[in-house]
Design brief:
Elements (H helix, E strand, L loop, with lengths): L15 H8 L18 H9 L29 H19 L5 H6 L8 H4 L21 H12 L12 H127 L6 H100 L1 H4 L5
Helix pairs in contact: 7-8
């Protein structure tokens, strides 16, 4: 049985199955996102060996020129999918190395067919697989454990070809490992930059939110102050109107009092004159009565009844006049009160009409802004959905490039 002296399996981040499972997860710029790398083909390794300074192969012609499998330090190798992919890569390398047995010049003259890396096939535009979103699985163990594992794996090389650091294959492996470490360092740097950008954006967002809160508080305070000022102005107007009404009432009362005093004096004078006239008339009538009574004693009772009736009618007319005066005063006060109420209602009606017109204009403006923002939001969402669909189609095509492109590795 030929010995697999140069068979070595390179650690990769994830195989094709893991790449498919990762792409099905709805995650954007997540720290746990893994970018799958394609396995290195045998032709690519042979091309690197052909360009090395040492052209004489160290492998016998009768043995298979495969790479020996070495345990990976990546945490993703512990999964069943990674183990299955490792076995697939090892079997592929073994089957490919059988056809590569021959002289060293045959390996040098072969046509190089290195596969393109994923960074060459990705679009230049920003997407979810850009440099800022690349994530790798770091080793979970301690550095001492990794060093011991590396020493143990280094001791597993065949004694006929020496350690991994000797020979062309060792140089290739060391170069690949150094490139992998450099890529990991770059990824770590980009991750730190992304974290710094996130922290800066968060600080700016907090500052904007604080400023918005302060602005809303000041705006609310201004609205409250404006409302209170309007209320005070309305109270001042109402009190001013009430004061004017009271002044008018007091002036009217003074005028009425002056009029009634004049009327009282006039009535007193007239009453005195009438009393004098009545006294004179009574004296005259008494004389006549005495003269007549001597002649018509029988008509005395009738005259008394007539006098009593006239006195009652006079008292009744006087009482009705007093009641009419009270009613006139009551109606005058009621008219003044109704006049002030009508003025107040007219003022409130004008104020309500003005407020309703302002409210209507405000509602129309807000409805116009809402419609405009809705159309802009709908257009933006349509554009984002189209970009997401295009990116998803490109990703599917890139993942199925082996099935879509003939001869792709």
């Amino acid at each position: 049985m030929p010995r697999n002296r140069l068979q070595k399996q390179f650690p990769i981040l994830a195989d094709k199955a893991q790449a498919v499972s990762v792409t099905t997860r709805p995650q954007l710029l997540d720290d746990s996102f893994l970018t799958p790398l394609t396995p290195v083909s045998t032709a690519f390794i042979n091309s690197m060996q052909a360009h090395s300074p040492q052209s004489t192969p160290k492998v016998a012609l009768g043995r298979t020129a495969t790479i020996r499998s070495v345990r990976s330090f990546d945490a993703s190798d512990s999964s069943p999918d990674s183990k299955q992919s490792s076995g697939t890569i090892a079997s592929t390398n073994s089957s490919t190395s059988i056809g590569s047995v021959g002289p060293a010049t045959h390996n040098i003259d072969r046509t190089d067919s290195p596969t393109k890396s994923k960074s060459d096939t990705m679009p230049d535009g920003p997407n979810r697989w850009s440099a800022s979103s690349i994530r790798v699985i770091e080793p979970q163990g301690d550095s001492n454990v990794l060093t011991e594992a590396a020493d143990a794996d280094g001791n597993q090389w065949d004694s006929t070809i020496g350690k991994a650091g000797l020979g062309k294959t060792g140089r290739v492996i060391n170069r690949l490992v150094s490139e992998n470490d450099a890529l990991k360092r770059e990824i770590q740097i980009e991750r730190l930059r992304a974290e710094e950008a996130k922290q800066a954006a968060k600080l700016i967002e907090d500052k904007m939110e604080r400023m918005m809160n302060e602005y809303e508080g000041k705006l609310l305070e201004a609205n409250v102050t404006k409302t209170l000022l309007g209320r005070k102005e309305r109270q001042v107007d109402s009190l001013t109107a009430a004061l004017d009404a009271e002044k008018k009432k007091s002036q009217a009362a003074l005028e009425s009092e002056r009029t009634w005093l004049d009327e009282l004096n006039r009535v007193k004078k007239d009453s005195k004159i009438q009393v004098d006239k009545a006294t004179t008339q009574a004296t005259l009538m008494e004389g006549r009565y005495n003269a007549i009574s001597s002649h018509w004693r029988d008509q005395g009772d009738q005259v008394k009844r007539a006098m009593t009736k006239m006195r009652g009618e006079i008292a009744k007319i006087t009482e009705e006049r007093s009641g009419d005066d009270d009613k006139i005063r009551t109606l005058r006060d009621l008219c003044e009160q109704q006049d002030s109420n009508i003025k107040e209602l007219r003022r409130e009606k004008d104020e309500i009409s003005r407020l309703f017109s302002e409210y209507k204009e405000t509602q129309e403006k807000e409805l116009h802004h809402i419609k405009t923002n809705g159309r802009e939001t709908e257009a933006e969402q349509t554009r984002l959905l189209a970009d997401a669909k295009e990116t998803l189609d490109k990703l599917r095509w890139a993942l199925n490039v082996k099935n879509n492109v003939a001869g792709a590795q």
